[in-house]
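Handout, tutorial session.
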Amino acid sequence: MGPKNRSVPFSRLQTFTHQSPIGHWSVSVWQPDPRLAHIVATMWFGEGKTAYQRDRILPSGQSQLLINLGPPQYRVEPGPPEKRVPFVDVWYSGLHQGPIDTEAPNGNALLGVALSAHGTFPWLGEHMENLSDRIIALADALGDGALALRERLLNTPSLEARFECVERWLLARLKPRTIVHPAVRWAVDRLAATGGRIPIEELATQTGFTRKHLGTLFQQQVGLSPKALARIHRFRGALALLDGSAGQVPWAELAEQCGFYDQSHLINEFRRFTGFSPVELSRRDRPDTQSVVLR
């Protein structure tokens, strides 16, 4: 049985259910408060159990605030020796340029906030270059306030009320001194709109800054350089086309359409971001657009 789409009677909430040989789960997606539209891409709650042991989360150009409301999850750090790091409360996953392997042996109940590339700086207030390619326990950065948020969510039965609670928490943390520079916001949005194909020199010129100065602002307020973020967008564009190809992929055409130099460049970027070639990836189960089953 394939995935089903079931809308619940609440205008800001949609719930999607999935049942197949790889597992059964539901994902509820919440339309964020308009006051958070400039930082939050989406809010979601996933619950269920997979039939596979391990999956791989692929780079998306977004960071994630992750609140575990169920059994422990595990992040797998590559070895040797391989290490399983438990995730039991509240974590922040920065912008990543490589995949993240995870396990949920006892099922999951996870609330997440997917943040735009410039969406963390306004509420966390850290220099973002220190958080890219990292996953941190949010209590280490914010103290007990992050854990108190989780406790409130655990004591809130309604899913709608849980999302509203997280919205209030984020809104309360927004600070005027950590507003993202308008040029950074514009450039991030432009990179997304062009699928990472706009030349970085042209991007900088259109902001009125030098490439070096724009890069410095990106490191401080995004965490990645414009070039690095553009690479992720090109990869995501190629992945979306691959997902919709039904196995019939004109590789050279795909590479050109997504801004790669040639087919070899496309394959190398896929290996960097997923650990697989495009052909290898297309043969694996994909629970959703953000992940791939490993075993």
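The second record follows below. Compare its token runs with those of the first.
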Amino acid sequence: MRRPRCTPVIVLAALALACGGRSAPATGAEPAVAGAVPGLVSTDELVHWQAEGPVLLLDVRTDVFAYLKGHLPGAEYLNMETLRASEGGIPTRLLSADAYRELFSRLGVDPARRVVIYSAGETRNIDATFLAFLLGGFGQPGVYILDGGYFKWQLEQRPIAVHYPRIPLVRYPDRPFRPDTASLADVRRAAAGEGGVLVDARSPEQYAGREGAQMRRGHIPGAISHSWQNDLTQAGFGHVWKPAAELRRAYAAQGITPDKDVIAYCNSATEASHLYFTLHYLLGYPRVRVYVGSWTEWAENETLPIAVGPRP
């Protein structure tokens, strides 16, 4: 059962001169923390928020040593692999609600305070969207991803810190954890044409079966190929989300429309979380889920069919 969602109010990026000119993807009033759903924040807007009051910054870049060399002032580090573990032998499964509550308590995540997540920016946006997906599963208000990430912030010659922040511990609320996930049974029904559209967020090479680390290569039969990187555009030397209208047209051209039940998958749910963020939060698609097991689970089960080549 899906919980009701608020209509996203999105604060999208307006690029500074250091990264080249570009029209802002969308405009809208700044949401209050209470009741807001995940969205984007530009570097300019983040500076404004920091001047107004405390903002919890989470650095989810892959390498902790990159954080040690420099990070946004006030940011604390979180390695994305802290957010998942094997379960029943299958890698990269979600943790329990209690495990996430304990982790968010240690990080100082407070429903009354904005949370801004950033990754490298030119790559690995998927780590930021995965954390936003989990926080959204708790109904956490005021969650934003820094559009362009650390790379854009650094290119604009904004302040960089090496000292660690001192963030007080909190008790994360004991609220239900209801991430929008699809089970293996849900995906099997969709693959059989019995409900929903499957969208593969991996690269075209992995989708076609030319690349991949799993024991079988290819894709789930019937799945549409839409790489998560297709949702980004280059701005200067960095990458930011495309304008909302352009994103909407691109998805609609592939038959991925708001009236459908969309199930996104990838290798291990991170790339799929990028599609989820784009479709559900930025474009307002009402029924989007992530198949957490993704190709890692599907490919290993030799009783399940696979398809190869560039077409569904």
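Points raised in discussion: The domain at 17-155 is CATH 3.40.250.10 (Oxidized Rhodanese; domain 1).
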